[in-house]
TrEMBL record:
<protein>
    <submittedName>
        <fullName>Chromosome 2 open reading frame 76</fullName>
    </submittedName>
</protein>
<dbReference type="InterPro" id="IPR018794">
    <property type="entry name" value="UPF0538"/>
</dbReference>
<comment type="similarity">
    <text>Belongs to the UPF0538 family.</text>
</comment>
<dbReference type="Pfam" id="PF10209">
    <property type="entry name" value="DUF2340"/>
</dbReference>
Amino acid sequence: MSSEAVLTVRLVRSFEHRNFKPVVFSGVNLDQTVQEFIQFVKNEVSTRAGLPPPFKNFGYDTMKIIHQAHGAKTNELVMSLEDDDKLILQDGLTLRAAGIANETELAFFRKEDYERGDSDLTWRIHMDGWMDGRLRGWHVPSDLSGSIFI
């Protein structure tokens, strides 16, 4: 089993606005710790050409597995909201022990934003009713005015 991998890291700047940029890292050592990899990505992102400054200077602190090679992808727009206990990378583990393999896709985000927005990341538009087999309308909660996820 090779100790190096190609990993795609999705830099998530905003869950609400689905603002993210994927960055590919080649030759990643899977035997390094999660903390070492997070520090490596922070250093690389801050100096990488082609990334807008808001992505370079953001306070990323948490990684979560989005997709494994040859596995099914979710329909989530930014990342899955399920299985946090299994998919969020834990400090102290190596990348390999955390379940990372070649061609894994990860999300890198600020945990505070994820936890605060967790309830808003799910669908919150409710059907108003059906008429003659057709959708008659939608009820949008007033607290979501102007920030509907579609």
